[in-house]
What we know:
It contains no helices and eleven strands. By secondary structure, the chain is mainly β.
Amino acid sequence: xxxxxxxxxxxxxxxxxxxxxxxxxxxxxxxxxxxxxxxxxxxxxxxxxxxxxxxxxxxxxxxxxxxxxxxxxxxxxxxxxxxxxxxxxxxxxxxxxxxxxxxxxxxxxxxxxxxx
Length: 116
């Protein structure tokens, strides 16, 4: 089982920014990496995903505010979150696998809290 190590969560005021990072603990490389989130009382949802070739997908609620990227040499994925809103508050999970929509590996999650 590959461990995905996340960093960058925290508390920020509405309108602020945060950047999440994620990398596997070993040297394994994945075709797809992404970020899902789960807010209290809500279902887990895909936030953004990216393939090794650079194809990206975003949830409608974050388009224009969040940007996913990856450094293939470092085997690391990033999620730049700008113009954060209180409704972005959730636990964010890094994912990896063959496809964005069906990840095979999950991180432990990092809390993002946006205050109003």
